[in-house]
Amino acid sequence: MREIELEDPKLMEEVDHEEQNLLNLRSKATEFLIREEYEESIQACSQFITLCQDYIYKNSPHFDSDHFLKLQKSICLSFSNRAEARFRLKEFSAALEDCDEALRIESTHFKTLLCKGKILLNLNKYGVALECFNAANLDPQANENSETLNGYLEKCKKLEFLSRTGGFDVSDWILSGFRGKAPELAEYVGAVDIKKSDISGRGLFTTKNIDSGTLLLVTKAIAIDRAIFPQDSGENVQLFIWKNFIDKVVDSATKCRRINSLISKLSTGENEDSMEVPEISLFRPEAADNCSFSSENQFDLGEILSILDVNSILEDAISSKVLGRNTEYQGVGLWVLPSFINHSCHPNVRRLHIGDHVVVHASRDLKAGEELTFAYFDVLSPLSNRREMAGNWGFTCCCKRCKFEDGIYSNQEMREIEMVLGKGLVDMGGIVYRLEESMRKWMVRGRAKGYLRTSYWLAYSKVYESEKLMRKWGRKIPSIESVIDSIVDAIGSDERVVKLYMEGGLKMGVGGYNGVVEMDKAMKFGRGVYGKVMKKQAMKILL
Ligand SMILES: C[S@@+](CC[C@H](N)C(=O)[O-])C[C@H]1O[C@@H](n2cnc3c(N)ncnc32)[C@H](O)[C@@H]1O
Fold this sequence. Notes:
This protein has helices spanning 9-34, 38-59, 65-88, 92-105, 110-122, 126-137, 146-165, 171-175, 234-255, 257-263, 301-311, 383-393, 400-408, 412-423, 428-441, 446-455, 457-465, 467-473, 480-491, 495-508, 516-530, 536-542; strands at 188-189, 192-196, 202-206, 215-220, 223-228, 313-314, 320-322, 329-334, 342-343, 349-354, 357-362, 373-374. With 543 residues, the chain is of the alpha+beta class. The chain has three domains: 9-165, Tetratricopeptide repeat domain (Serine Threonine Protein Phosphatase 5, Tetratricopeptide repeat); 173-374, Beta-clip-like; 399-512, no CATH class. It is elongated. S-adenosylmethionine binds at residues 197, 199-203, 266-267, 269, 272, 275, 310-311, 339-340, 342-344, 393-395, 397. This is SET domain-containing protein. Residues 190-377 form the SET domain. Pfam families: SET.
């Protein structure tokens, strides 16, 4: 260490000069931050921290305690400013580390506590974020910043409550015609667990009996990209969105260890059955952040691409509903926990997209221990089509419905029905009649009837939608109500089925607004599509 005599005027001058340089550097860093030039601010802060620490190390024996504290405070402030700049650049892990460095120097540093709270809030860690804001509130500086701080405190309390209860309500937003911003949602993990699945790899399971519409998950997207494009813009648009989306995921995974670690739990589609079954607690908003940035979870671009290929979700997919967005929107996103949900052709959960959150709810009643399943593609279609679509996903579906229909297809009658349907422009009433007669002959009962009716949804819906066809076939085929009941029993609620129920009811006086019982049924179907999270009046608008 360099020996200096502070009393020596020449050396004093040198020290003053060095400190002046440090002060200039600190002001520059602050200026960059104010001008929102975050990269530059980070660079200047880093430079200041290194030089100042070095300066203290060299000269501290000759400082009085006030002088020493003053310099330490400056370092604390620089860590705090660097944390703020990193937070703005979404470098959450590095920003949190800076906050902790600053708090090690001054455990009640107001700006740092505020910044740390904001970062944790962004990472959906509402409880610990609230602790930071509460601690900041004890500082005298809280008075000058009461409006900002109270805003964060309120938001945090609300989100913490929502993440514990899942008790959000989007009714007012719906009733206002989706005006303004989407309501604020918090991450929520309901009665679910991750386990080994008989379908493939890992799956998500219920832990208790629940009824249709029950909320199971609310998850914020790791990344999402959407755009509105003209209808005929085709594949190029998708490629454009896909590329932006990949960049966003890579960016988030690089900048945040927690995100990196969570993504690394997802399937690449390879050796899924031997993949580790992660603890559900890892995905809870309050999960401890103990993921180290080891080489194991620093995956390469190829791996990210495979993960995205297997797990990305289109917002406007068939088993989802986008609330409050333009229907021309094309959006693709990654939501971690819902990525553990396998496909089935008789699915039991659906999604609602609200802002950047995906809300997963039961689309029919579920028993404890049942595996949750989405429809990855349109399951209101015949087996041959579904096989093709599953093939595009890279798997063969072996669900109960597929197995049952596979058996039935060996039947000559069935193949003839398919052939006639394939020719198009046929009398759909004739197809429905023939299918119903065949089912009677083969003694197809219970849910299996629903399976087949769902496969020939096209024919059934055409008949029930047409007054002309109903006049011709109405007496020879089952009522719209019994068909819809069996379809909902087979595949849960589906928007198109509910729509037919409402419209058919209005046209033919079945299941319409006339009777109390029918409206109750419509509401139950509606809850399967939109979840329970709204008032009756809002549900009526959606229906
Ligand atoms: C979003 S992941 C679902 C979770 C996955 N099972 C896991 O362990 O992470 C999608 C992948 O699961 C598998 N999968 C999903 N549904 C399936 C099904 N019905 N039959 C076979 N494989 C399925 C496929 O490999 C698909 O690419």
